[in-house]
Each structure stands twice: as C-alpha cells, then as structure tokens.
C-alpha cells in the first residue's frame, strides 16, 4: 500500500518538476521588450502583435529625431541578434544593452500640440 502511494507521488513529482524550473528568455529579448514598453509608454501607441521593424516605423514620428534614431538602431540590432542566425559577439551584445538602457533612460516623445 505504501509502495503504491510512493510510486504515485514519484510519478506526480516527475510530471511537475519541469514546471518548477521557469526558463528565462534570452537577455537581448528582455532588453528589447523593456525598450518597446518604454516606447509604448512614451508614445501611447500599443505594440500588440507588430513585429519589431513595423513597430519602430509606426512610432518613429512620435519621437524626437534623436530618440527615433536610437530606437531604430536598437531595433535593427535586435533583429540581427534575434534572427541573424549567427552567434553575437560580447561587444555587440554589450552595445545593444547600452543602447537599450540609453533609450529607456533618455527617450523623449515629440510634444503634442
């Protein structure tokens, strides 16, 4: 009787163990999502299901020119990192994080009239 209970407990544990360990998304994806959330906050334009390039083009006119250029650059870097198919160097990854942090900290939307 006890062996049956232990067997069932073991099977349940094996079933639920993979769910206990949550997989973290890649760092570049987390940084891009933070930057996109900041862009959404600054412009009021929701991203919904738009891809990175389409969203960058949609919000481009809502930013000051310097901020728009920075968001476009970090979006292009994200696309290369995420979909390029080749490993990214540490320098490129650090530059991407730096651009994201700079955008999050200093991003400005165009004042509305």
How would you portray this structure in words?
With 113 residues, the chain is an all-alpha fold. It has one domain. It has five helices and no strands. The protein is elongated and about 75 Å long.
Q: Which features would summarize this protein structure in a list?
A:
113 residues; mainly alpha; elongated
Quick structural gist:
With 113 residues, the chain is mostly helical. 71% of the residues lie in helices and 0% in strands.
Count structural domains: 1
* Weakly predicted, low-confidence segments: none
Structural class: mainly alpha
Secondary-structure element pattern, one letter each: HHHHH
Distance between the termini: 76 Å
Strand content: under 5%
Give the number of DSSP strands: 0
**Overall pLDDT score:** 88
